Amino acid sequence: MFEIFKNYTIEQLVIIFSTPLYTFLILGEIILSNIQDRHFYTVKDTITNVYLMLLNGGIDLLSRGITWGILAWFFQYRLFEIQNPILYWFVLFVAEDFVFYILHVVDHYSRFFWASHVTHHSSEQFNLTVGFRSSVFQPLYRFIYFIPLSLMGFKAIDIAVMYSITQIYGIMVHTSYIPKFRKKPLKWLEYVIVTPSQHRVHHASNVEYLDKNMGMCLSIWDRMFGTFQEEIDDLPIKYGLVSPLENRNAVNIVFHEWVKIGKDMQRPIGFFTKIKYIFMPPGWSHDGSTKTSVGLRAELKAQKDTVEQLTESV
Question: Helix H segments across 42-152?
Fold first, then answer.
């Protein structure tokens, strides 16, 4: 019990000490962007980011008793334990970053989970507060991905502490003020860690950038599994969703994709086709009327190939 209280206190300390850092950097980014007439922030968008953060945090706190209990139950059946504390925390960091990558990929490639995650991508701004625009309902299922960590001998509270720590970095990469690393010695960092440049790509609605750069802290997973995309110099990033929201109130931002799923369920189509509308990638349709990110990229490539052929024939 003492150890649980100790680690819970550590998690609270992480939050307490990171809050002044966030405040300082956000205020600095607001002031600088306004001085430079770049206006990375709007009042309404920033308020929405804070609202969604509080909603996510509330659900997280309310569900912790259940989720931590489930992880603790699986911990009883752990396959091994790492005794060395340095190795323990290092392996936990790498393993948790990997399972977050898997979670993030599923959030993007299954419409059911995208309906929750889409809130994080709904902003047409890109600034530090967008990092707080959380996937509101993710705490209700995120723990499932942490079950393998429990079986690897990691305690639920330690998993929560590590997640809080890595979230700090995950929020910090939501900035336009750190450019793409082009020269050594910083260039090598692009091959190991997620940089602001890489995460800007992740938030882009350009077809070339869709569903890329899923890592939280480490970019090695994206490079290993083919989801990596560099920021293209002559392709300006357009933030937000492929189909921008007309109604941008907070309730619609949270529930709009669920509403669309409900409408698709009312279509006169077969049962298994309806199931596909729930779990297939966003944009999937049985008649090809809408396309997934893979389909959109294939369509764009075909258009470019046609233009090249016409240019060569002239």
Answer: 43-75, 85-109, 111-121, 142-151
